[in-house]
Amino acid sequence: MNLPFPELTPAIFVRRLNRFVAEVDQDGERMLVHVPSTGRLDTVLVPGRSCYLRPGKGGARRYPYSLFLVRAPESWVCIDALVANSVAARLLAAGTVPGVPDGDVRREVAWGGHRVDFALFAEGRLHLIEVKSVNLAAEGLALFPDAPTARGTRHLRALTAAQESGAAQAHVLFIVQRADADAFAPHEAVDPAFAQALRALAAAGANVQAVRTRVSPAGLSVAEWLPVRL
Q1: Residues 84/118, Cβ–Cβ less than 8 Å
Q2: What are the helix (H) ranges across the chain?
Q3: pLDDT digits (tens, 9 = 90+) for 111-143
Q4: How far is the C-alpha of 75 from the C-alpha of 73, rounded, in Å?
């Protein structure tokens, strides 16, 4: 599976000003860009690293560009969280997610007071699929989250309730948006509640899977499914 990117603009990362704004250097001129991620990205957004910018979407966007790719020592890293959903949508449409049968895939489905990223009904059963964008890797291990996520933990608990009640088969799909990881694990040191909720969800019978991608300024491609260490 390949996901081509639009034409990107090279720059040098300077600093992150706040949650949603960073400063970059483009051909010797400083400019502000949107950061399309709520994660900390401390090990990714390092001053002086090469980066690529994506044109802002829509006329109302305050900044003309969004920070899109950042060069880590061994891999490009895509920091746009929405790309993970695009990858998942293509994998689901192609029927290549293990444990998920072919069916009519729907996006943003309300369930238990939450919105689940994808849902489909096939072979007599409802499948609920939550997608997470993974940008952090350390010593070959992809980790999520890189900042505490109470919202993410609530989503996992809602899926656990659906799984335990028999109302649906739950799936969590971690899209690793960098190539320098050989396995995936929840980031217990950063968010023990999320790690515990993920283990409980898996113990209830949900499918927890991670897929590594190769990222370049031209696009993204799915490389392989990774071992998950819970």
Answers
A1: no
A2: 81-94, 150-165, 192-203
A3: 878 899 999 999 899 999 999 999 999 999 999
A4: 6
Strands 141-144 and 183-186, how do they pair? parallel
Determine the distance from the C-alpha atom of residue 25 to the mean position of all C-alpha atoms in its chain, rounded to a whole number: 26
Helices vs strands, H then E, count in the chain: 3, 16
CATH class of 81-226: alpha beta
Percentage of residues in the chain with pLDDT exceeding 90?
87
Whether omega before 47 lies within 30 degrees of 0, making that bond cis, reads no
Q: Roughly what angle, to the nearest 10 degrees, separates helices 150-165 and 192-203? A: 10
Let me know: does 137 contact 175? Beta carbons within 8 Å: no
3-state secondary structure 10-55: EEEEEEECCCCEEEEEECCEEEEEECCCCCCCCCCCCCCCEEEEEE
Out of 2.40.50.580, 2.60.40.10, 1.10.8.10, 3.40.980.10, the CATH code matching 2-78 is 2.40.50.580
Do 229 and 183 meet the contact criterion of CB atoms below 8 Å apart?
A: yes
pLDDT at 61: 65
What phi-psi label fits residue 74: left (phi over 0), alpha (psi between -120 and 50 degrees) or beta?
alpha
pLDDT tens digits, one per residue of 55-110: 986 444 688 999 999 999 999 999 999 999 999 999 999 999 999 999 899 999 98
Torsion of CA 149, 154, 159, 160, to 10 degrees: 100
